[in-house]
Give the backbone structure.
Amino acid sequence: MSTEATQSSALDTLGSETRTFPPPPEFVRQANVSDPSIYERADKDFEGFWAEHARTLTWRKPFTKVLEWEAPYAKWFADGQLNVTENCLDRHVQAGKGAKVAYYWEGEPGDKRVLTYQDLLEETQRCANALKELGVKKGDRVAIYMPMIPELPVAMLACARIGAPFTVVFGGFSAEALAGRIGDSEAKLVITADGGYRKGNVVPLKKNADDAIAQTSTVEKVLVVQRTKQEVAWTAGRDVWWHDIVPRQKADCPAEALDAEHMLYLLYTSGTTATPKGIVHTTAGYLTGVAATTKLIFDVKDHDVFWCAADIGWVTGHSYIVFGPLANGVTGVMYEGTPDFPDKDRWWSIIEQYKVSILYCAPTAIRTFMKWGSEYVQKHDMRSLRLLGSVGEPINPEAWLWYQQTIGGGRCPIVDTWWMTETGMILVSPLPGITTTKPGSATFSFPGVQADVVDEGGSSVPLGQAGYLVITRPWPAMLRGIYKDDERYRDTYWSKYPGRFFAGDGAKRDTDGYFWLMGRVDDVMKISGHRISTTEIESALVSHPKVAEAAVIGRDDPVTTQAIFAFVTLRGGNDSSDALSKELREHVVSKIGSIARPKTIMFTPELPKTRSGKIMRRLLRDIANGQPLGDTTTLADATVVETIRGSTGKEA
Ligand code: WT7
């Protein structure tokens, strides 16, 4: 761990934006929360605050205890029981909202489907009955590897209905990455599709699933949705078409009453080693956290159309496409494909068509749209928008302002929401009816949440200074552990500052107390908002027979925040070439997925190391970014740097 990120140039640019944006009075008048005393109230009694939100849910057995906290282990509402799907579906239908649209769905090729809450409830129950027929029982793990089609939330909800923890694996991950996740979770069932559409191409999901399952030993059945109708290999006795088994089930499957701390899902995310971590999220606290943040941060109303444009394969989709919005009975939008298919105005045409009122997306997307130009936006009527959200990486003030002006027409508040897979819910964000925003700042911690910025030794740093972001009090949607790896759980998040959650982000607070997030301080990169470990890519590279050593760093990139830059040393007898660099890129893609494809590969005869043999990443980062080099006196061989500087990187 180093303080490098906290010294980076981000510090100089962030926090210098002086414009402020108070919430528009028309927004305040209708906001779900507009009284700033909520902060004080929640702070005085944070358990009471969360209990109040938890009580808005439907419980099978009411809780009497709110929080049991034996750091780093939390239990929320532990003696209560509920079912997530009863809260997301049944109670809305029972309240007469069965005909309300749950999802407007659009496939990349332009096909459309509309699912009401009644439809979603019936389909979930049919799917749950199919899971039972396939032998899935409460507690069994199910791996879900699907495109962004309605059957994906249905599959997640069906698992939740019967208490089978699921793990969604992003459809862009490779067979090998899927195999690792199936192996670690010991999934019994895999739910996938023949394929999915992406940029006009077909992604071979079933083939990847087959290849992954061949490397694992726990999968008994594979449930396959027909999406693209391409030819797929079929394993008789194991593979089952969704359309053969789901539609013939009864649309009635009683929801299991589950303990508050029953595992709802596992979601794998990258850490600083080569192995992803299975982040454990449980039932009642998670639902409480995502329901409350959806309501207060996204200000959702009965008439809203909420589009969170993430992929459900990431936590953003879990919390703000599926569980948060459904718990609030909101109408959502789901889109399968890329923003530039068939043209660069696809998103704006979706907003116009469905009268989207709340849009939630990543800064990378915003910067890409800026690059494409505002003419694509201006072709469409965007007046339905009333609130905009940002997530996944720091948003630079310029992109923030473009978002505010060009997408939001200057009238929509922006909520820059900081959180992570581990936190389950948004922890730092404006409340749009209360907070005066500053472009580039995620502003303040959510009511009841307590965050701080501390130095290496754990002392709070004064306002205006940079340090590490920590969360100093438990929150209901927090991770409950790393699946089957308690030691890593303690080490990663709780050992640096005992009793406080270490997020791995650099941050500072300005003199008004606003939080400014400054990026990761560990070996985790953010590429287009996706979290990728440098070590994972290095390990993929060195698994190639021609590679002796590799060091990967994130090079600053104006659009994707960081771009993957790999320094590679070849084994003797191999010469660098464009062909080899292409081969190595594809090798990484096959090990992890296309999101991990290195942008630049630089072949170098040696890597700069300390005398004890540690690769000096800081130097490599400076070289890749064309920065003046810091201290090189600890280098074992000072000439290495000059050799590397003389090499040229091969761009993808
Ligand atoms: C990392 C977590 C949680 C949704 C998607 C990402 C970065 C996230 C912000 C923000 C600055 C942000 C952090 C964090 N991050 N939101 N609003 N401002 N940075 O989840 O893949 O678990 O990544 O994303 O660096 O640690 P994730």
